[in-house]
Write the structure tokens for this entry.
Amino acid sequence: MKGGEDKLTSENRSEPEGSAGKPFFREVQIEFLVHELKGPIAVIEAGIRMLLEKRSVYGPLTARQEKTLHRNLRNAKKARQMLDDLLEIGRCEHGRFSCSRFRPIGVIYEVLFDTLEIAPGIDKIVLLETERTREHLPMFGIHVNETPATADLELWQDETKFRQIFGNLVKNALYHRRTRVDIEVDLTEEFLCIDVADDGPGIKPEHHDLIFHRYAQVNACELSPKRQGHGLGLAGAHILSRCMGGNIELSSEFGKGARFRLILPISFGVEGEVGNGRRL
């Protein structure tokens, strides 16, 4: 970008086409790609498990080595889960849900620590040696405020999709923050509201709609220099939230950070049913 121009990046150019004249990513079967990628990840995961579980064969481990292997194992599982997440948007758009009862507060703290492991600017050694409890989040610049009404709240929702949505919002905030991320969890009538706010560069009002478009981003002049993504995370989170009966709202001023609000009904559909009434 020349001269610090304020422009938007979107898919203005024609997409590369496959042999049948269709865009490449529509022609390739995502199920095939997921299947092929899961194999190598499964091998890595199995190798780590053997080192942890068969020490009589492979030798003893120091405490730090054991923590490192456990961290690697979590990330191998996370990579496998990311492949599964690629299928979730498609399943969602086809009305396929797997709802269950779960407490969102517990999930929120699990996702926060998982996301810290791949966030920039985090001392991974300190994180590795830190107990994964809510009291330790402020040392990584994350501050959570939950209202009493949400402490024991249970949702009837698709937990996998909930984790994916919230994880993308947190990932986005961690990449663009200057020093901190603030998370507020509240209950408004029959809806769970989660605000994820950062103190980063913010987004101009005229660019708010673009944030939720697939393969579209605001250029580096408006984003943190730490990272330029592919414009998929927030777009996917927005699609999932809408399919689950909720929404994601954005409030931001350029230079004053950004706040994303996830709104989800505490009960989605009828218990024992999936999506539009079809059972798994």
